[in-house]
Amino acid sequence: MSILNKLKFRKSVASPLVLFFAMLIPIMLISAWSTASTPRDPYKYFFNETWGDLPEEIAKAKKEGKSGVLVFFEMDECPFCHYMKQNVINQSEVQNYYRKHFLNIVVDIEGDVEMINFKGETVKQKDFAFKEHRVRATPVIAFFDLNGKRIHRHIGKTNGVQEFMWMGEYIVSGAYKDTPFIRYKRKMRDKE
Question: Which end of the chain is more exposed for a tag (fewer CB within 10 A), N or C?
């Protein structure tokens, strides 16, 4: 076989392979990207299933090595609650981080469902929200330590995924003990 024929043979075999891989690589990258950013149902992947017995939930959180309990106070007609559920807590990176470090519970501030508060008393969700935690508007994101003491409270929606992630890191790192969240957030922005 002459050199010219060898080159033609190599070119005819190599060309379809190059074309195949040139098409396959972008498809794989797009697939990986879309899987990583696919929104997931927050009620299935963010909030933990609970019977509403907070002392029992705290015991479970301690046993699992969690940093605390997050209570997401919401109501049905709240547009900012919907924003949080559709744009922030539906993201897999948020869900994975928060599920790892916190027990995440949702409370309806208008709910008549009974629950057991951190003191072991049976109360309705709306009383737990308003009478015990002064929640009037939603959303309110409250973090509690493993003794049931509130350690941070955020009123309203966050400014997206990044701020919500910083809020979790703020609690997990223990920065809440000596730094206001606004200062912590500023410090994190300066690092970027």
Answer: C
